[in-house]
Protein: 4-hydroxy-tetrahydrodipicolinate reductase
Amino acid sequence: MSEMLKVAVLGARGRMGTAAVAAIDGAAGMELVAALGRKDPLDVLVDKGAQVVVDLTVPGSTEANVRFAVEHGIHAVVGTTGWDAARLAALAELLAAHPETGVLIAPNFALGSVLATHFAARAAKYFESVEIIELHHPGKVDAPSGTALRTAQLMAKARAEAGVPAAPDATETALDGARGASVDGIPVHSVRLAGLVAHQEVLLGSPGEALTIRHDSFNHASFMPGVLLGVRSVGARPGLTVGLDGYLDLEG
Structure:
């Protein structure tokens, strides 16, 4: 019998954490060794022999959690937002001193969402105008979503590399926020509405045509295949990986 992969979940009492605990507990080849709330001591991870930790906490806690994991040789799969460029750079520096440890920072674990972002980045250079609408439940604490930020960044990069000029926009006066937040020049609009879970539309347009790429997560079960993929893969991917697409074969 093969050895079970020992996994711990941080943020285990939240909606994502609860779903992750159930998914890991029922997954073949995995043993859930700890399910911790935000205030539980991290030393439990070491005491229980965790090999992979899944961080689903809050932006104010995630950096310290991941640092603890890396310093103790525990791989980390992270779905918490708040990882800006400075935090990622600091994490990459830390990982350089722990070259056998892997960390995955994933703005979204839904495989369909990862594919939609990939398709949007591939399509972005072919259209004159691009905008993003992201829609989430009203309990979400950040806006725009991490998924929308990453989508906009990848689209903007593709457009810049292809030499595509800025999208036309004759707006001269507008109420604050009317044109959304500008992420590398791409407008991103955030909706917070009761009854929603996680949804995103990428709108691309040129004279005479429009393309919409939309993904919908109707419940937290949609994220679990990606979480399990991350847990199974992170140990074989030392260093820092940003985006679950780094674990998928999307270039073929």
